[in-house]
Each structure stands twice: as structure tokens, then as C-alpha cells.
Amino acid sequence: MIRFAGRKEEAVGLDIGSYSIKIISMARESGENTLTAYNIKKIPSGTTELDLERLVKEAFDEIDLHPETVNLSISGPDVLVRFIDLPKMTREQLEGALSFEAEKYIPFNINEVVLDFLILGDAPEAGQMRVLLAAARRQPIEERVSMAERLGMAVNIMDIGPFAMFNAFTGSNPPAEDECNAFLDIGHSRTDVLISTGGLPHFMRQIQIAGKDVTHAICRNLSVSPEKGEEYKMGIGQADREAVAQATEQVLDGLIKETQLSFNYFDNRYNKAVSGIYCSGGMTYQEGVIDYLSKGLGIRVKKWNPAEGIKISENLSKEDIDSVASQLAVGIGLALRG
Predict the structure, then answer these.
(1) In this structure, are residues 165 and 183 in contact, taking their beta carbons and an 8 Å threshold?
(2) Cα 65 vs. chain centroid, distance in angstroms?
(3) In terms of Cα–Cα distance, which of 41, 37, 38, 48 is closest to 21?
(4) What is the C-alpha to C-alpha distance for residues 183 and 269, in angstroms, rounded to an integer?
(5) 272 lies in which domain range?
């Protein structure tokens, strides 16, 4: 997490994905968080960077929100997270040695990335500590910061998407110290997998299987347009439900296989098995997805509501928010950063 500006009592999270723009505005009064505004705006296929800036502006204008500062997310191929063991040292010592240590684990040019870290605690080997090392390419960060500034907003914090999602969960669901949970955020272009022990992340991976692959499978199997495939995926229109389910399951089988490999890796490294799975993202709204994932992974998968435990402003409909909340996990986590 990179902090740029000072802390504000009303915080805004801006999550720019590959499919939609999500905005969350959160006020904090007397220790209680209140969701005061939100918006979801679809990003049309073929959108340019210039078009994207216009869409972001429109998304803010539509809810009459014009904040001075904003919290942003970054994710995808420009971000790399590693969980490594290093000799025990102080935070100050690690800050001084970070660039040198990072070169061993980061395949990017070290001069072209922004680095951050979190000391997670002792490693099993004596004299070692476990460290979360995060690297993000500097160019996309600077591009997002410049966009925000052109729109009149200073960037307060930039966080990695899955960590913001995890922040949203722990904000209303404080985990037990030995609790081992997995989080699947199934978006449009990828699925983010994060595994935590207690309140700390210990594994993160991006799987390049997600909602767009389901749409493509439906289009291919039913010989329909991408627009119609997207509608059928969400249960809109007179589609052959069995054929849609078969196309969806073909894609989910690949996601289940890759997710299980991640669980096995985590179990082998930490000698801990995942006991709970929480799922967010747009795909959670498709009929049968959660049940199919539960059956394939052998663990009950729960669709969770990131707005749970957060007070909703009187001018907003809780029912409306609950109907889209699974798409707002990253935005809510960003806004909760303050």
C-alpha cells in the first residue's frame, strides 16, 4: 500500500477494472463507517485511455461526487507479489536492503517499479522472518495518478486490488488467529486468489480464467453474439439454460483445477489447509456458480457481502446496494483505508 496524501474523514475508493468502474464514498463518524455514495459504470469494449478518463469523470458526475482525494487500486500483470523468507532484521534495515533483496525475486527492472513490503512474522527456520514483497510497475501507477490529478483529485493511497478486497472482509469479519481462509474474486478478465491465516495474507495468485471466458464459451456453444452471450450468462433472455450451464461449467472446471493447485501449494508450504472460501466479483451472480465451485473444491464456498457491517446512508437503498455489493469489494476496501 502506497500512501500519497493526508488522511481524510470521508474517503473515496476508485476501482477501475477491465469491465467496469466502481466508486465508493465512505464517511467515518464516531468510529462508525457510513457508505454515502456509490456507482458502477460499464467500460465498453475497445475503450481507449482517453475514453477511460472521460468515463471515470462521468461516473463521478453521475453521483455528484467531486472529492479532493481518492484511493486507487492497481492489479493485473503490472503487479507482482511474493512471500519470501529473509534473515531477521528491523523494518528500517529491510527498507535499506529492499531493492537489493527484491532483485532476486522480481523479474521487472528494479528501477522501473515501486516496491513495498510487510513483515508477517517469524518463519519456521530459526533466525528467519516471513515477508510479503510487492512490486508494481511505475508507469501504470504514474498514469493513474496523472489521470486522477487531471480530474481534480489527489491520490491518497494506491493499494493492490486483492489486498483491498481482503481489507473489506476483515473490516466486518475479524478472523480468528488460526483461521485459514481463501478468497476468490472472480472478475471479468481474471480471478484473484488470496489465502490468509488470521488477519494476514500469506498467498496471492492471479488466474487468467474469469467471466469473459464464460461469455466466450456460451457464444461458441450456442452460436450467439458477445452481447447475447453476456445476457445469457446473467440469466437474461430466452436461452437454453442447460446449454448455458454446460458452457459455464467447462470454464469453471479449469478455474477449480487451478484454484486447487494453489490450495495444495499453500498446504505443502505452510502445513495448513484452507477451511473456508469466500467468493466475490460479478460471476457470483450467475446461477449455479457458487454451488458448482463448492462441489468441485470440496469446501463450501460462500458468497459474501462486502457492505455487511457498514452503515448505509439514508439516501441510499440497502436493497439496491446488496444486489451489486459483490462487485464492490475492492472499492469498499479502498474506502475503508481512510
Answers:
(1) yes
(2) 23
(3) 41
(4) 18
(5) 175-303
Calculate the alpha carbon distances from 174 to 177, 200, 201, 262, 286 in Å. Answer: 9, 11, 13, 24, 28
Question: Are 157 and 73 spatial neighbours (Cβ–Cβ below 8 Å)?
Answer: no
Question: Would 242 be classed as within a structural domain?
Answer: yes
Give the span between the Cα atoms of 102 and 329, in whole angstroms: 29
pLDDT digits over 136-150, tens only?
999 999 999 999 999
The number of residues in the chain equals 338
The Cα 305–Cα 261 span in angstroms is: 26
Cell numbers for 134, please give them: 510487492
The residue assigned the cell 474506502 is: 335
The position carrying cell 486468489 is: 193
If asked whether residues 212 and 290 sit together in one domain, one would say: yes
Q: Is residue 267 part of a domain?
A: yes
Distance CA 79, CA 61 (A): 30
**237 with 297, same domain?**
yes
Burial of 184 (0-12, 13-18, 19+ CB in 10 A): buried
Q: Show the cell assigned to 18.
A: 477491465
Residue with cell 498467498: 203
Distance CA 44, CA 196 (A): 34
- Report the predicted TM-score, pTM, of the whole model to 2 decimal places: 0.90
Instruction: Return the beta strands (E) in 75-217 as ranges.
Output: 79-87, 113-122, 128-137, 154-160, 180-186, 191-197, 200-207
Query: How remote is the C-alpha of 219 from its chain's centroid?
Result: 27
Q: What is the pLDDT of residues 67-81, one digit of tens each?
A: 999 999 998 888 999
Helix (H, G, I), strand (E, B) or coil at 258: helix
pLDDT band at residue 300 under the 50/70/90 scheme: very high
Q: Give the DSSP H or E segment for 37.
A: strand 32-42
